[in-house]
Amino acid sequence: MIDLKTKLNRRELTIGSWITIGNPAIAEIMANSGFDWLTVDMEHSAITLNITQEVIRVIELCNCSPLVRIANNDPVLIKRVMDTGAHGIIVPMVNTKYEAEKAVESTKYPPIGKRGVGLARAQKYGNDFEGYKQWNQENSVVIVQIEHIDAVNNLEDILSVNGVDGFLVGPYDLSASLGIPGNFEHPNLIEALDHISIVSKQLNSLSGYHVISTDFGFVEEKIEQGYQFIAHSLDILFLGNECRRSISLWNQTVKKK
After folding, report:
1. How is the chain split into domains, by residue range?
2. What are the residue numbers of the active site?
3. Which residues does 197 contact at the CB level (< 8 Å), separation at least 6?
4. Helix (H, G, I), strand (E, B) or coil at 107
5. The predicted structure's pLDDT at residue 253
6. Are the C-beta atoms of residues 171 and 184 closer than 8 Å to each other?
7. What fold does the segment set 4-252 form as a domain?
8. What is the pLDDT of residue 124?
């Protein structure tokens, strides 16, 4: 199996999704569905670090790449998440070059970064630190989230940071930073997205977008726009929408009889 880092470096199109329900069964179902990667969300969920480790274990066993969206750009949290065996991190609200550098330094060991050394699941509980060290320096993934107008204005500096593998647009927070939360058709948001597209193409950066809707048509739209790292919806929307669809069909057919 080609690892995620190689696919990202080749600018291959990958599709993943978001896990907010801290149950290994959810992770197993989604990982076995064929996603290239899955992100455990520790920012907007009740998932703890202990549960994150169990979910990561399941995702790996299903030959899918586990990422973690951390709660904030905290070196201690990043270190602990990576020690659980995450293949990489997605860092919210990266608005400056310094914040991007901080994320990379927290993920990588010296001399590349400043990550402290510990022995945990990632290092096979102390049985293979050297192997993990080499893997971490070469293959761990750092994705920064571009979800504020300040990040848009500083995008070239952010994406120039060595060790940043790509970015992921967070449309809700980006629109909120413009004072138009959830208004994805507003000219100001469209202008910001156009700027992101221009800069990322100039720098040949891996560009990502979180498509919140379960409608695959929106995924196709983002692919046509050149995005290569696509997060498609999240567990609660896939589950909720399918439940509502079933009940709607029930109401339209069975109840009418």
Report:
1. 4-252
2. 44
3. 207, 225, 226
4. helix
5. 85
6. yes
7. TIM Barrel (3.20.20)
8. 97
Distance between CA atoms of 141 and 143, rounded to whole angstroms?
A: 6
Rg over alpha carbons for the chain, rounded to the nearest Å, is 19
Contacts of 13 (CB under 8 A, 6+ apart): 223, 228, 230
Instruction: Please identify every stretch of the chain with a pLDDT value under 70, giving residue numbers as ranges.
Output: 1-2, 255-257
Give the pLDDT of residue 113.
98
What type of residue sits at position 209?
Y
Q: Partners of 38 in the beta sheet? A: 17, 66
pLDDT tens column, 55-91 = 999 999 999 999 999 999 999 999 999 999 999 999 9
Q: Which ranges in the chain belong to alpha helices (H)?
A: 4-9, 24-31, 49-61, 75-83, 97-107, 129-139, 149-153, 155-159, 171-177, 187-202, 216-224, 235-252
